[in-house]
Design a protein that fits this description.
Layout: E1 12-16, H1 17-27, H2 29-48, E2 55-59, E3 73-80, H3 85-151, H4 157-192, E4 197-204, H5 218-228, H6 230-251, E5 257-264, E6 276-283, H7 292-358, H8 363-397
Helix pairs in contact: 1-3, 2-3, 3-4, 3-6, 3-8, 5-7, 6-7, 7-8
């Protein structure tokens, strides 16, 4: 039987990415269910390798004769499969077991990637919320200052109204960011498993964008991906299992040998009558049923697995090309923001704010600069998360995901 997942004595309050992955592997019900598929496949291997049971029978012969003993016949029957049926069935079941184990490994890698995605999304949402709060706090100071300027008659009431409306917009940004955090926390809780993370858990980690290796070329990574990906390994095992099933289907028409051995007790009661022993062999004649339909089905199933392998190769190549392009794009965006875009947007905001407060700049310029800075900061954080997720996706495609 599969081990029961360890219970969480206390809900986890602080969790790192590595801890979240380990918790998900222990508690995620969808992943745990794949273990039972492996268990079932192991049982199929055991069942395929056993011989059929013999049969025992009792019989009464000559019961019309007065005083005849009942029963007076004992026997054993046994059908011996020949033609390599058991070995073919065992090979097919063994290949299915390998496919189930590889499928479980693929589910493990997919779960790890799902945890990474949820964790990065939560870090991004928290980062966006933190910036939204900072932006609101900064704008509240600006609004308070201009409330005083309005009382001193230095700005018009129309300008003050625009500033108040902008303050409402910053409040909306905080509310939307908080909603994003709540959704991201719910997503991570779901993928890790119920009753594991505390309602107010804290995600310990930093949002960062890994650099793309210079040797990352789709065609160069394709062979590596096919060698490491468990789903491709599972498909190869399924192809082998289908091929062995075809062999079994072709061997099934080979007649099995039936053996019957019995002992007949004497019924005459005469001295010296020790009864008799019978031994017979039987064999079915495959005149009508030669398993043609099952052979055709097995051939079709095998051909489908071959085509599925070709399809997966093309799919992996397409995924690699797109994933590497996504990573390069996200990396370029991060570099563009880090090489001056964020700093320039902040500097522009400070200049226009100072000019407006001195009366040498317009309110429209100040609000436009404030909006541009907010959008730039938000886009920068999103680009960092995008690059991190792109890196995780490449690792998943190439089979490099490990807990």
């Amino acid at each position: 039987m599969l081990a029961v997942p360890p219970t969480v004595s206390a809900l986890v309050g602080h969790v790192t990415l590595a801890q979240a992955v380990q918790l998900a592997l222990q508690h995620n019900p969808d992943f745990r269910s794949t273990g039972y598929d492996v268990m079932a496949a192991r049982g199929a291997v055991v069942q395929a390798s056993v011989l059929p049971n013999p049969g025992f029978y009792l019989g009464a012969m000559g019961i019309a004769q007065p005083g005849a003993p009942v029963p007076n016949q004992f026997g054993l029957t046994w059908t011996i499969p020949i033609g390599g049926k058991i070995s073919a069935a065992t090979a097919a079941a063994t290949a299915s077991l390998s496919a189930a184990e590889a499928t479980r490994q693929a589910a493990k890698q997919q779960l790890i990637t799902s945890v990474q995605t949820a964790f990065v999304s939560l870090l991004l949402a928290e980062s966006q919320l933190g910036f939204a709060k900072e932006d609101r706090a900064g704008f509240e100071k600006t609004l308070a200052l201009n409330e005083l300027r309005y009382k001193d008659g230095k700005i018009a009431f129309g300008d003050l109204l625009k500033l108040r409306l902008q303050a409402v917009a910053t409040d909306d940004e905080v509310r939307e960011a908080r909603l994003g955090v709540d959704n991201a926390r719910a997503d991570l809780t779901e993928v890790v498993g119920e009753q594991v993370l505390a309602p107010d858990f804290v995600a310990d980690g930093q949002l960062s964008a890994p650099a793309l290796p210079p040797s990352a070329i789709a065609e160069a990574l394709l062979s590596q991906a096919l060698a490491r990906r468990p789903d491709y390994a599972a498909l190869l095992d399924q192809e082998k299992s289908a091929q062995e099933s075809l062999v079994l289907a072709k061997r099934t028409p080979i007649p099995d040998i039936g053996i019957l051995a019995d002992y007949n007790r004497p019924t005459s009661g005469e001295v010296g009558d020790h009864g008799s022993t019978d031994l017979s062999l039987s064999i079915a004649l495959p005149l009508f049923d030669r398993n043609q339909g099952n052979i055709t089905q097995a051939e079709a199933a095998w051909e489908k697995t071959v085509l599925a392998e070709e399809s997966l190769r093309a799919q992996v190549r397409d995924q690699l090309v797109k994933a590497l392009a996504e990573w390069r794009t996200a990396e370029a965006l991060v570099q563009a923001y880090e090489n001056g875009a964020v700093a320039e947007a902040k500097q522009s905001l400070e200049i226009t704010r100072h000019a407006y407060q001195l009366g040498t700049g317009s309110l429209l310029d100040f609000l436009d600069a404030e909006s541009s800075y907010r959008a730039t900061e938000s886009a920068y954080r999103a680009a960092v998360a995008r690059a991190a997720l792109a890196a995780d996706n490449v690792k998943l495609i190439t089979g490099e995901v490990e807990p």
